[in-house]
Design a protein that fits this description.
- The complex is a heterodimer.
- Chain A is α/β, with parallel strands linked by helices.
- Chain A has 12 helices and 11 strands.
- In chain A, the strands form 2 sheets. A 9-stranded mixed beta sheet of chain A has the order 3-2-4-7-1-8-11-10-9, with helices on both faces. A two-stranded antiparallel sheet of chain A has the order 5-6.
- The mean pLDDT of chain A is 96.
- In chain B, 0% of the residues lie in helices and 42% in strands.
- In chain B, the strands form 2 sheets. Chain B has a 3-stranded antiparallel beta sheet, with no helix packed on it. Chain B has a 3-stranded antiparallel beta sheet with strand order 4-5-6, with no helix packed on it.
- The chains are: A alpha/beta, B mainly beta.
- Chains A and B meet through helix 5 and strand 5 of A and strand 1, strand 2 and strand 3 of B.
Chain lengths: 378, 78
């Protein structure tokens, strides 16, 4: 079977790009990815684009900046998992043998919304009752705190670690480390989640160039292989364990099986820490800690950049930022740089296997509406 | 009560704070209930008070489809 290989990655700094437009912002990331790959735009045979709130044809608006026409461009909306889904499609396009070089780009401009919570489906049953994304994760956090005696200070440590990492990442939205006191005493959003336990609304773009293993040697001697690219939707279940995100569990199982690896093989993870409690869930789901012991792993230092299994060395969604459609691609860009030893001030030691994970939604009856997991190796 | 939160930041135009609670009932039924607050500076805001309530049967008879949350005061439903 043809295997997909990442040969280039690029992104814009995440943050507030006031007045930015989808086309130029996405094009900046694409230019960086092409440069990284040593490839011209003419080499791109197809493209996928993840975006949530940017309107029609974002991929075409980006590639118009290069004068690209005629090639297939697939635009993807899968909530926060849109970028991960765009990469999943690009990977499958390569693996099918139909294309040799596909561009996956993600872009989002959330500053147009101002501050506040993301708009969800106004007709959704739970949204009608007052659920929004912080509230959804707050209720998960409350249950976890009840069952496993997690304290607000322990929860704050997730954000403290993310911001330590973000301060070392030139692409991160936040470059200032925060203390536990800063995080705990920040404005309350939805108990127990304070503002600094919630990811920001971000603008930004990220892009990766994916090619077949057949042509990869033309462009690089340091390929990064996509060993697994899995996409799942949620399982409808009105009553569920809020501390065990089952959509991620399903995607994890499929990804580990596809890649032929397990938790002990992982050298780093970029996971969906849109809210601090999420990172603790995913420690446990990806096999780094037993159920209820995520905080112990965090306080041990094992998930710091110099720890046994670094998690979110980029700063994650909490510190690098979360421009919805770009996030899943940016995670893979981070994994690409880490695996190639190009992560500069936040480089972890000799990673060989990286896992990226992003969930999407906000829909009643499901813990998430979409989840993508990628496993990449040197 | 399975879980709860007090929402301080809602959708644009939505009055906050309000409380959300998820309560589990027999037969695999979970009810998500909202208790509205009013102006945050109002001393009579119900947020933070203990409210005794019951879940009444829904018009359709299927609690999965809809339900009514009935506040009980002085032992009598209101």
């Amino acid at each position: 079977m043809t295997r997909a290989v990442v040969i280039g990655a690029g992104m814009t700094p995440f943050g507030k790009h006031l007045g930015a437009k989808i086309g130029p912002l996405g094009a900046a990331a694409v230019s960086a990815a092409l440069s990284s790959a040593g490839l011209g735009i003419a080499g791109i045979q197809a493209a996928t684009c993840g975006n949530v709130l940017g309107g029609m044809l974002p991929g075409q608006r980006i590639l118009r900046e290069f004068g690209v026409s005629d090639i297939p461009i697939v635009n993807v909306e899968n909530a926060c998992s849109s970028g991960g889904t765009a990469l999943h499609l690009a990977t499958r396009m390569i693996e099918s043998g139909e294309y040799d070089i596909v561009l996956a780009v993600g872009v989002e401009i959330l500053s147009v919304l101002g501050s506040g919570v993301l708009p969800l489906d106004p007709d959704d049953t739970e949204v009608l009752q007052g659920i929004n994304m912080p509230a959804s994760y707050a209720m998960r956090a409350q249950r976890y705190m009840h069952e496993y005696k997690l304290t607000p200070e322990q929860l704050a440590l997730v954000s403290v670690k993310s911001h330590e990492n973000g301060a070392r990442n030139p692409y991160a939205q936040f470059s200032t480390p925060w203390t536990v006191e800063d995080v705990v005493n920040a404005k309350m959003i939805a108990d127990p989640l304070t503002l600094y336990m919630c990811c920001p609304n971000s603008d930004g773009a990220a892009a990766v160039v994916v090619c077949s293993d057949r042509v990869a040697p033309r462009y690089t001697t340091r390929p990064v292989y996509v060993r697994a690219s899995e996409l799942v939707s949620g399982h409808f279940r009105p009553v569920r364990d809020l501390t065990a995100p089952e959509t991620t569990i399903t995607a994890r199982d499929k990804a580990f099986a596809a890649a032929g690896v397990g938790p002990a093989d992982l050298d780093m993870i970029e996971c969906h820490d849109a809210f601090a409690i999420g990172e603790l869930f995913y420690y446990e789901i990806f096999g780094l800690a037993e159920k209820g012991e995520g905080a112990g792993l965090l306080t041990s230092g094992a998930t710091k950049i110099d720890g046994r299994i670094p998690v979110n060395p980029s700063g994650g969604l909490l510190a690098r930022g979360h421009p919805l459609g770009a996030t899943g691609v940016a995670q893979v860009a981070e994994a690409f740089w880490q695996l190639r030893g190009e992560a500069e001030g936040r480089q972890i030691t000799n990673p060989r296997v990286a896992l990226t994970h992003v969930t999407g939604g906000g829909i009643s009856g499901y813990d998430n509406g979409a989840c993508t997991v990628h496993i990449l190796t040197t | 009560l399975y879980s709860y939160t007090v929402v301080r930041v809602g959708r644009k135009g939505e009055l906050t704070p309000y409380a959300l609670g998820a309560a589990d009932f027999p037969d695999d039924v979970r009810v998500l209930a909202k208790i509205d607050g009013w102006a945050p500076d109002c001393p009579d805001s119900p947020i933070g008070r203990t409210v005794v309530a019951g879940v009444a049967s829904s018009p359709s008879g299927d609690p999965r489809a809809d339900y009514r949350l009935v506040v009980i005061e002085g032992g009598e439903p209101s």
